Structures
1.
Amino acid sequence: MYLEVMYSAKLMSSTSFGLCAGVKYRRVAKSVEVTSTLVFSRSVSQWITEYGQQKHSPKRHAFWRNIPLSAMSRAIRHASTTVVRAAAQSTLDPSETKKFQLLANKWWDVQGEFAPLHSMNDLRVPFIRCVLVDNLLNVHSSRQLGRPLSGIRILDVGCGGGLLTEPLGRLGADVLGIDPVEDSIRTAELHGSFDPALMERVQYRACTLEELSEEEAEGFDAVVASEVVEHLADLDTFACCCHQVLKPGGSLFITTINKTNLSYALGIVAAERILRIVPAGTHDWEKFISPVDLERLLESSGLFVESVRGMLYNPVTGSWSWTESTAINYALHAVKQREEPPPDCAQSPAAEAHAGEPDPGAGGAPGVGAGHH
């Protein structure tokens, strides 16, 4: 440890841009680990060993003088920024992926671990259908009998085995289901293959939302993320990517769990540990989010919440119902404003200064009438 501290102190005093003296040692060591690999192809331990061997040597100072400090400084700054950026721009949580990898072949067991999701379709499918029919009725005038969502393109984020993807496809929508767990995608494709007519409208892809957003800008009329956000690593990236893939006026549908004492007692203690409705460890209470916080996060990315409804699960009957309380589960509908925000979801100071001013040619304030022509 002594040699590590000495090495970090030497590095901090030598780099051209100067690391702040208050930076914790662990953060410095991480940057050095990445930098040493990038620049010198040697690990921190190798640096420490070599420094220890030479600290009493006459060549000690020559050793440090030969280090290209400017290059090292740039590399450390780049490596640190890259590590932070990579972590901040990924919705994928490897621990969550591992959980669902173990359950990938159980999606269509209506009596198994995903039974509550099967019964949740009784609420979420009509909810999505009614909103889309009302909001997009004038946009997609070509309706087919029995297929009210025909002509509408929907992205199902975290689709799993296709439990929600298939019903939306049967309503006539063109649906793309994405999930980072390849085995879940294979399960979804296998189940959908038994209905050839469904295969024409439903497709699946093993990828993350941020990967898809790079190639599907404004490609969807609606995005659905049902029981997903509580499993993501970065909700800011999630919101930004949803905004990016949605068409102006498009809808975002989310169902998730509120962050309350009651949700912990019923959603984790009762559901996972006592009643065993879902496998233990399925949820992390720290990842739950309240409707207020979720609304604030979405609006910062240009997605404006239009409705929030409480949901209640009855473990005795295995059914869901709407409720006025959002203390446990809730459903949310948001709309992407029709006025074009910056594509990176970040406004310049000048843009922020004019954000609240109405568009002279729009006849109203931004966001009014979103979802309708």
Note: The radius of gyration is 26 Å.
2.
Amino acid sequence: MIIRLQILPQTLIPNFPELRSSPKILKTPNNPRNNNHKSQLLEGFTPLKSRTTSPPLPTIIGSDSGLLFREKLIYLEKLNIDSRKALEQNPNFRSVSLDSIKSVEKCLYSMGIERSDMGRIFSMHPQLLTCDIHTDLYPVFEFLLNDVKISFSEIRKSVIRCPRLLICSVRDQLRPTLYFLRRLGFVGQNAISCQTTLLLVSSVEDTLIPKLDYLQSVGFTYRETIKMVLRSPGLLTFSVANNFKPKVEYFLNEMEGDLGELKKFPQYFSFSLEGKIKPRHRLLVEHGLSLSLPEMLKVSDGEFSDRLMEMRLRTINGKLSFYWEPTNLSNGFHDSMNKGNSAMAGLLKDRFHLKELVHQT
């Protein structure tokens, strides 16, 4: 723990040249010799003023400082915040008062953010614990309400979705990005809402423009790119290296897709390449089937399995209908056996025996 020494006021420090007791002078009235001796002893000393009883000097190291620090740690624990992580990322927490920390909580609560949300917010950005609510927080809320036109009831949604808003500078980050997005077309029905305020924390030069440039380098025109991001704003939150590039390469090379499909379904980039796109595409290829991107990706795993099974059954039924024709039944059965298609042969054989049983009865 860093201990800060306190400098005592000068009025409380006696004017001694060094810490030692003054010599005791015996009072002997009408004795000039003693008086001369007394004046010699007191030479070089500043006469002391009469001292009254004063309160004890403040303790430099005491139990109070430890108790106050303990109270702050308990406060963090009640908010489900890792105190060790908070101290590592924000050393100023040691010196700030508990009342100052609670003022931040009260400010957030006044804007509709519940106490249960604050643990996650402070854990993500511990610097908020020691921020100045008047210079750091209120300007952000005023910007969201007045500039972005977010309603008060949606402030909580914006902050919960992107707590980083609270640590961004309105002048240097939020307002310039808002102006850029509006020039792109985020106005009217496409205006920034509580669902898209997270775009405001992105750097225009380092994040947004490079993503737009990459989409155009793939083959989309500027107008097509803008139309895609307006339709699916989440595109501006994806990484070029970790999202756009590998998914575009798989779509064009492995799936042999057409850019027109991506124009119609830009949500393709929001699905996991390894978790959903590749496994489902490979299943379709394995069974000689195909689906459009929305049909392949928008359904749940269970619905996709049901759809795949239904398509396989339709394919099998189509082949069975061909073999069930009187002129093709016998030849079709033997051809299937010769080709080693045991599954198809089994189905044909079962249906052939079933027809014989019906005739016998």
Note: Residues 301-323 form the longest helix (23 residues).
3.
Amino acid sequence: MCGCYPVAPPQRWLHLSPGQAAPLRYLIHSLFLPSGLLVQSLEYNQPADNYTVCQGDNATLSCYIDEQVTRVAWLNRSNILFAGNDKWSIDPRVRLLTNSPAEFSILVAQVDVWDEGLYTCSFQTQARPHTAQVYLIVHVPARITNISSAVTVNEGSDVNLLCVATGKPEPTVTWRQLRDGFTSEGEYLEITEINRQQAGEYECVTANGVSVADSKRVLITVNYPPTIKDVKDAYPTMGKPALLRCEAMAVPPAEFEWFKDDKQLFGGLEGLQIQNERTRSMLLIDNVTARHYGNYSCLASNKLGVSNASLRLIRPGSLENIAVTGMESPLFLGLLSSAFVTLLFKI
């Protein structure tokens, strides 16, 4: 909905909407064509009143007169719109509303920017010709006319976004990152050496107070190589199932490969299953046997790089398991601390 208001509300004689009129401001010298049409030459003594409407609205131009008026006409700049009941304008949007001894009104439907300008009510009395004027201002809601397309870049690159808006009055343009709420004023948004945390949707908002704000969004995708998160060893019992999990953050999403020692593993062989999701891969063993215990590697890769991590499938009760769990026990840590102190005294 357009929210336009008159800049200087008219008072009497001339108005643009019911109940609003403008005072008589001008004197004119007039000539009369053979047809009796008034042709004006203005002597300005005060500026015309301003009246603001929104693009697409209707503007009613009313001139309040009395029985002393013998001729009356509405003009736009030097173009005659209506002279009495006679229509001179070829614009179908312009039509006569009222022609009575007290009022002479016309309507301009669906006002557009080219309708902006000076409108004159020129009328002749027995004493002399007169004129009253109003300047029609057409406001246009802010609209985004051009905006950058979705962007995909590698981490560390520079990004430039553009958002072009039009409107009257001149609209403001603001960029906003939806995730973090970061804002930047102006048509251009420049991001130097972008990182993965700055990826996401950016919204351009334009407004000029005429109507509701207009907005559009641009998605920035930041590519970066895989980074494998913490991985954990597993301690399954023989004859039971086992699971090794490998998670990796990457854009584009990483492709996963599994290895035992130097041998690549494939799902469906030797009781193994491999389940790959967007950010993780799982190696499942249906029935653990002695040959399954050992060292495993997870490899995550995309077009920007490779990352790998080592995992172990450890048999409970084995020397390796005892060594791992023993090193984590309070007793072992206490013995290690005492040995370290003794070593220092010997030194």
Note: DSSP finds two helices and 26 strands in the chain.
4.
Amino acid sequence: MSPIAVQAGTKSGVDVWRDRRWRKGRDHQDDRDEHGPQHGSLLKCLALQALELSAPASDVLLKSGSQALNQALAQTNNAQVHQVFSAQASAWFQLAGHPDCFAPAGPGRIWKKVGDNTEKMAYEALSCDPALRGLVPRYHGSVSYRDHTFIELQDLLHGFSDPHVIDVKMGTRTFLESEVDNPTARADLYQKMVALDASAPTAEEHAAKAVTKVRYMQFREQQSSTHFLGFRVDAMKERGLPPRNSDLAKVSSRQEVVGRMTDFLGGRKDVQRRLHTRLCQMRDRVEQSEFFRTHEVIGCSIFMLYDDREVGAWLIDFAKTVPIPDDRTLDHRTPWKPGNHEEGFLFGLDNLIQVLNDA
């Protein structure tokens, strides 16, 4: 019996792929046809960027992913299946975030390790909001392995060939209200702060070699465009080049942000127009979304990418998205005050659309 236990009502990525492999004509903002020249990039697992400042994930995900794939391959004589998975093993890359958080789950799908049920519950709720259909990765359930939980999601790189990729972290606030009163000081966050600016910690923080999470998050906000534009470019990959994120950490002026967006677009006015249309549609639908009206959305990113044929943009990263009290609703543009749960997501999206226009 396989050590991978899939929740009732869900299928593994390989099983679903078998069921649907001849299905054609899907909208390329969702799943794509599994055949053709895209195979080489099938599981270049995107640059799903999550600002989850918890302990680094273990390597159990990649191990379990390999085991699941090996078991699936052992159960089939389909040469095409073997060819696809073999080609994908060397094509894997992650743009940013903790290592070993993602693993292949089958053609067009990935597994993401989750620390608790927050992101799992968020994706379950998101998948029930018609306003957001096609704006978030498709959610295919959860997978349990020993004491770990993984969610199975649409692989947003599937169908793209060596794409240009950018990850934009949204909002004017990158910490939950529940984290404000957390007094725990962390050595790993102190090291991150010093790496960005050795003079930033106070004398007391230098002596303790630790800072609280809120202190570090507010420091990051001030270092970047988060505090005045409501978004920051967290990571980027241009065609033929390795992912880059370290040089983006201190991009703080609007002119610099426009410059990074210009680099990403690479002179492709057609891509600029299509992304503008997509982001405007995204804004309209987020404004209509019941989910967004009733949730504090912290650390969410807009993930944009394009190649010679395709252009896409999705909302990703919901590890710090939580419901707000029942007597409140959010507009995502009102400035944050303690207790109002506003995080500036739509304020940031307004500015992102304008920056895209100016690039």
Note: The first strand starts at residue 5 and ends at 6.
